[in-house]
Amino acid sequence: FRQFRYQEAAGPRDVWRRLRELSRRWLRPEERSKEQIMELLVLEQFLSILPEDIQSWVWVRHPESCAQAVALAESFQLARAEPGGAWEQQVTVRVKVEDVAPGDVEGPGALGVPPSPPSECPRQEAAEEE
């Protein structure tokens, strides 16, 4: 729905028709209540205005409600603010692909990076249970 562009249609009437069709597929008004549709719209807007780092982190966790998205965003902020927390322990390594041959690296540990860096927020489980 949001990615549709005018150039993809044959004119104003076709644009209107396609937008209605796409919005019906997204919002499914025959299956959802007005409250559920409002929740989808507010959730989308909430996610779109979050700072980019929080937005990306929350988005990949596929929140199904605004309450869940808010809890995830708050968890992200709390984990990032904790001294010595997972966010301070992560290491970023930038390598040009042509600089490393497949046999040069046996695994993530060979680069001095923990084999499984923290990818989940320590508080995510608590947010999901709410």
UniProtKB/TrEMBL annotation:
PROSITE patterns: SCAN_BOX. SMART domains: SCAN (SM00431). This is ZN197 protein. Keywords: Nucleus. Residues 102-130 are annotated as: Disordered. Transmembrane segments: none annotated. Residues 1-77 form the SCAN box domain. The keyword Nucleotide-binding does not apply.
